[in-house]
Amino acid sequence: MPSPALSGFFFCFAAMVLLIFVSVSTPVWRNIYFLKATVTEEIRYGIWGYCVQGGECSSAMLGYAPSIEQVGGNYTEGSSVLQNFTKVMILHPIAGALALFAVLWGLAGVALASRTCTILMSLTAFLALLASLVAFAIDLALWIIIRNRIRDRGFEAELGNANWLTVGAVAALILGTCTAACGSCGRFATGRMGGEKY
Questions:
Q1: CB neighbour class for 185 (10 Å; exposed up to 12, middle 13-18, buried from 19)
Q2: Phi, psi dihedrals of residue 195, rounded to the nearest 5°
Q3: Beta-strand (E) ranges in the chain?
Q4: Structure pTM?
Q5: Is there a contact between 91 and 170 (Cβ–Cβ < 8 Å)?
Q6: FRET label pair with 53: which of 2, 166, 183, 194, CA 20 to 30 Å apart?
Q7: How do the domains of the chain map onto residue ranges?
Q8: In what order do the strands lie in the sheet with 42-45?
Q9: What topology does it adopt in the membrane (predicted)?
């Protein structure tokens, strides 16, 4: 009989992978981005910076001023409020790290058939869920505001795939938290040798 922690482990692992993908977004991994704007060239924005279509990228740093002047737009979203919003995007890697801890607790819960480890997986997954929800809310606020301001200037802009990866991670963490919490109420063997059940 599979461990009651198995389904929670699976969902937490899926969320961790998605959050890792988001955490290494542009300019580290150019195919994962939060916003794509097109003026004379395409520019993609990620957690750590931005990349222009020609291959030129900003240096990877936390808290940058989203700007399209690099591609001839003569328009900068460099207000301190928006720059501070990009600093708060560190919540994505933090949520990924919390999901990693949930995965490790889940692995221990599966391997050791431990109720305590399954409960700890549920609690850690809940913390990762909270961090992911806050990160997603900030993503929507930041990138929709910037997208609309860019569109108001007559340029093209659209939300990127990193937003949807975050939605997937939030959904997986909701399922992981719930299944781990329900699994912690399941039946566990007292040992791997098949002792008494309680």
A1: exposed
A2: -75, -160
A3: 35-38, 42-45, 50-52, 156-159
A4: 0.83
A5: no
A6: 166
A7: 6-183
A8: 50-52, 42-45, 35-38, 156-159
A9: Multi-pass membrane protein
CA distance 80 to 157: 21
C-alpha span between 169 and 68 (Å, rounded): 29
Q: What token pair was written down for 48?
A: 């750590």
Helices vs strands, H then E, count in the chain: 5, 4
pLDDT value of position 198: 46
Both ends of the chain: CA-CA distance in Å? 15
Per-residue pLDDT tens over the stretch 13-69: 999 999 999 999 888 888 899 989 887 788 888 888 888 887 788 778 877 776 655
For 70, the token pair is: 């690099």
**Which residues does residue 156 pair with via DSSP β-bridges, in sequence order?**
38
